[in-house]
């Protein structure tokens, strides 16, 4: 066995050496917002193939590099608790896109709060020209609103932007 390993060493070296590194993937900076409990950390951890058990509420912000086949998204998640939300706008600078995560099964009051936060984000000078993704999360819950229902709740915001809002679940 040792002899075979010895023989194959130069081949391995050549293969490693001549193949070269893969072409670099473009990187984009995104900001991820949404009320506490909407599932931002869970979503990003899942996309990074990390353990999604025992996730705790984000205090402040947290950054993850989310790898895709053709790009790397550097996503900055901003904690969604009320005492953190008032500082969100301080962390918008440099963003190239926005992910807004929504708990589709939340109460009417929470939905109203989420709508107000989304409204502010859509109008913010540092975000208003960027692509927005609104993710209707918690779709597995019986009380979840369908994407169509969420769309009806949020549809009028699309008049604020030239680019159409995109809804995914
Ligand atoms: N049933 C269900 N639970 C979810 C879903 N997404 C997240 N959760 C749960 O919701 C809880 C809160 O999720 P987090 O990912 O911490 O939410 P967050 O938006 O990061 O919250 P903050 O960091 O406080 O802003 C966790 O217990 C998750 O397991 C979902 O789609 N369905
Ligand atoms: Mg979080």
From TrEMBL:
<feature type="binding site">
    <location>
        <position position="41"/>
    </location>
    <ligand>
        <name>Mg(2+)</name>
    </ligand>
</feature>
<feature type="binding site">
    <location>
        <begin position="137"/>
        <end position="140"/>
    </location>
    <ligand>
        <name>GTP</name>
    </ligand>
</feature>
<dbReference type="GO" id="GO:0046872">
    <property type="term" value="F:metal ion binding"/>
</dbReference>
<keyword id="KW-0460">Magnesium</keyword>
<keyword id="KW-0479">Metal-binding</keyword>
<comment type="similarity">
    <text>Belongs to the small GTPase superfamily. Arf family.</text>
</comment>
<dbReference type="InterPro" id="IPR042292">
    <property type="entry name" value="ARL15"/>
</dbReference>
<dbReference type="InterPro" id="IPR027417">
    <property type="entry name" value="P-loop_NTPase"/>
</dbReference>
<keyword id="KW-0547">Nucleotide-binding</keyword>
<feature type="binding site">
    <location>
        <position position="80"/>
    </location>
    <ligand>
        <name>GTP</name>
    </ligand>
</feature>
<protein>
    <recommendedName>
        <fullName>ADP-ribosylation factor-like protein 15</fullName>
    </recommendedName>
</protein>
<dbReference type="InterPro" id="IPR006689">
    <property type="entry name" value="Small_GTPase_ARF/SAR"/>
</dbReference>
<dbReference type="GO" id="GO:0003924">
    <property type="term" value="F:GTPase activity"/>
</dbReference>
<dbReference type="Pfam" id="PF00025">
    <property type="entry name" value="Arf"/>
</dbReference>
<feature type="binding site">
    <location>
        <position position="58"/>
    </location>
    <ligand>
        <name>Mg(2+)</name>
    </ligand>
</feature>
<keyword id="KW-0342">GTP-binding</keyword>
<feature type="binding site">
    <location>
        <begin position="34"/>
        <end position="41"/>
    </location>
    <ligand>
        <name>GTP</name>
    </ligand>
</feature>
<dbReference type="GO" id="GO:0005525">
    <property type="term" value="F:GTP binding"/>
</dbReference>
């Amino acid at each position: 066995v040792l002899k075979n390993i010895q023989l194959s060493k130069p081949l391995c070296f050549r293969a490693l050496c001549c193949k070269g590194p893969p072409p670099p993937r473009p990187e984009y900076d995104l900001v991820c917002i949404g009320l506490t409990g909407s599932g931002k950390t869970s979503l990003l951890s899942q996309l990074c193939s990390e353990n999604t058990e025992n996730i705790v509420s984000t205090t402040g912000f947290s950054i993850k590099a989310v790898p895709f086949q053709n790009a790397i998204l550097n996503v900055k998640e901003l904690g969604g608790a009320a005492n953190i939300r008032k500082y969100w706008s301080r962390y918008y600078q440099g963003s190239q896109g926005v992910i807004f995560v929504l708990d589709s099964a939340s109460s009417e009051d929470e939905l109203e709060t989420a709508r107000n936060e989304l409204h502010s984000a859509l109008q913010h000078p540092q975000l208003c020209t960027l692509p927005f993704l609104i993710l209707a999360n918690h779709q597995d819950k019986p009380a979840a609103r369908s994407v169509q229902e969420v769309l009806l709740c949020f549809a009028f915001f699309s008049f604020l932007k030239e680019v159409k809002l995109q809804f995914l679940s």
